[in-house]
Design goal:
This protein is of the alpha+beta class and 148 residues long. It has one domain. Strands 4-3-2-1-5 form a five-stranded antiparallel sheet. A hairpin with a 6-residue loop joins strand 1 and strand 2. The longest helix is centred in the C-terminal third of the chain and has 14 residues. The radius of gyration is 16 Å and the shape is globular. The two termini are 17 Å apart. The mean pLDDT is 85.
Length: 148
Amino acid sequence: MAAAPVGIVPEALPPHEDGEVEIVLIKMRSTTGDLMSLRVRRDGDAYVYRMVNEYELDQVVVPVQSTRPLSFHELTVLLWSFRWDECDGPELVGYWEYKHGEGREDFDSIREWFVFESEYYEGLNAWHDERFEQWKASKPAWQQAEGG
């Protein structure tokens, strides 16, 4: 089975606000190549962050702002915990749980769903794979042996 396209619709993302820079682009292997974009802009002495996608859903990122650029660790904490609204669970693990619960995709397919790109932070895909392996290890051994 051929892999779904990755990030084929960047023009569907909302326009950047004045002075805003994309620091992470998250591509998804959906049939429409969905994207999420983590952006930052300066507001006085603060760096203000927001996560956008083409559906203009409300997103919750923590921190919303900082007094300096995020370290790699701070960025990964933000990426691990962001959610599309206050009622949702964290996006990454929520997707993994959803697809695992459906039972239609093996662990490799689930792992490959998200692809991270950044001109400012190297190692995001390796971080993602490590977190995925930790999540996978929390599943019963028989599920891991069956691949999902």
